[in-house]
Amino acid sequence: MAIFATLKMPMIESTVPLRTPLFRGERRLRIALVGMPNAGKSTLFNAVSSTSPHTGELAGTHRVYEECIVQIGFDEASVIDLPSIESLHHPAQDDLAALKYLLWGDERPPVSVHEPNGAPAPFAPPDLIIQVVDATSLESHLELTLELSQLGRPMVIALNMMDAAWEKGLHINVKALSSMLGMPLVPTVALMGQGISELFTTAVAAAREAACPLLQPASRHISDSLQRLSQALDRPEIHAAFHVPHPLLLMRFAAGDTYFQDELRQHFPELLPELEQLRAEAERRLPRPLEEELHADRHHRAATLFEAGTRMGAPHEGRGWRYWLDELFLHPQWGLVGSLVVFAAVLFLVFEVSARLDSMTAARLIALAADWQPHSTGEVVGRAVVDGLIGLVGIVVPYMIPLVLLLVALEEAGVMQRIAFVVDRGFHQVGLHGGVAVPFLTGLGCNVPAISAAAKVTSGQERIIASVLITFVPCSARSAIILALAGKYLGGTGVFAIFVLTIIVVAVMGRLLARRRREFGPGQVQEIPPYALPRWRVLFSETWARTRDILTIVTPLLVGGSVVLALLNHVGADTVINTLLTPVTSWWLGLPVVLGVPILFGILRKELSLLMIYQALGTFEIGALLDKVQIMTFLLFLTFYIPCISTFAVMLKTIGRREALISVSLSVGVALLVSGVVRLLLEGTRLFAA
Fold this sequence. Notes:
By secondary structure, the chain is α/β, with parallel strands linked by helices. It has three domains: 25-217, P-loop containing nucleotide triphosphate hydrolases (Rossmann fold), CATH 3.40.50.300; 223-299; 334-689, no CATH class.
């Protein structure tokens, strides 16, 4: 008799800590972008802004601010792009309004209740300040940094234009300067989207820690002179009235700031003579007027920080290929040209490669099966199965795989992310942000993962618009058909024209859909990865992941659809369906009546339509039966026609039944309108030319 002992092993639990607090909804962060003119503050804002930022004016000024909601990982932030600030010492009226917002937001401290303009801003004060600094003029910007550090709020510095600083030979010790200032510094190139993701991630972490920057006190001789004035101002009633940090109040009054002096005169008239006397005593102990001494001291401290944290080297004249590529892809205007060049290059390569692959695969299979003429029902089914498999090979091998492979390679190389960044403003025009650019480009492979990817980066009405528009993006199946037919019978110009028309239709539809929106989604911080050579393992595995549905979904549909069509034709039932669809196929589209069934069955898979056309016309060389206008009309209709059934299924899941059905109706209407109008224009042009 055997005795078995049971050992109870302790259960090991693995948890992933969630950073708290989570900044979302009513608890989202408020981040103020502050900076001197031409520091790149607005460029940074535009890089992360939502589809429709809110615009307003600060109280008592005509200076415009912009506000948007930005998604930062699991957190959200309201980002406010404030008007540029020259300085906080003796601020102009507009700079004073910005200072009031940074101090009080939508609150009104007791000292300001008499002001006619109301609260400084219609929203709460910022939880954190991001100062955007021109790295090429760092010393002058550090003076503003010293002033902002007195506000008593967490701060992060965006060292912008770091590429230009490096080019000038300026080397900034970010770690040392950050330690001296007591706040994080993040190098950025806002125009190219570099460092933005790290900047906002750092900002969220700084807000979570609630650590204010190190107070940068004035020099010892000034501090000693102001000691008695500081003690006189350090009264509970004064702090309760102003709601500002004591060091800021001291420096503002000592510098002769008219706003703070006037408020003290109105609310504490009994204290003002004493305060003025103490200020005069402090000034007598200094070699020059107190205001000048404070300004000179601030300039000296900024220069000291600059010298300690930087060094000058020889200007860098050489620029690598990565820089010049970014100059192209990330340029506000030329980036669009670069994106179109990449897109055209992909189509050209696929077109050239596909023609050769088609001749080596599908063409040979077609030739082998050409002599088989079925007679019995069993032979009809057998020939239909063979035709379905040949059609599968003819679509997948020459066209789909090269296209998906190239798209994955561009993603791995970091090109797709740059295209997404540069087209961000264009997507804003249709109510979307640039974060959906990659899902849209993914849609060239398959609409199903594209809609799923878009759903992850969007919400609400923005998700609906993105999902609907993606259905108009030619997937690899539709692209394969376009390349196969247009490339063979219409040439490269015809292929390019179809894709350009697709872009126009998507843009127009996006504008129309954006008008019905009642809400706007948040902006998104996009990360620009470094350029990298695609890894072969990732390249092939990702290509397989995006095309493996061919075996499980497409193959049965293609073969089954081929069999159904062959049987319908065998028993004559296809004639009834084709007759019912005559108003669409023959009257409006100008296509042969026999193409009604292939068009109808396209809802299963777009590849199936092409195969069924071959079967319906009785040949794989359709150029002998269809002219160029008919081929163009059919391709346009197929491009915008109802997405395949798998795409419709994922739309039901992501946007709901109502919106999915509206999308289907919209696609049918657009397909009929565009293809019919183009057909009429082409036929009119042909008649005119004749």
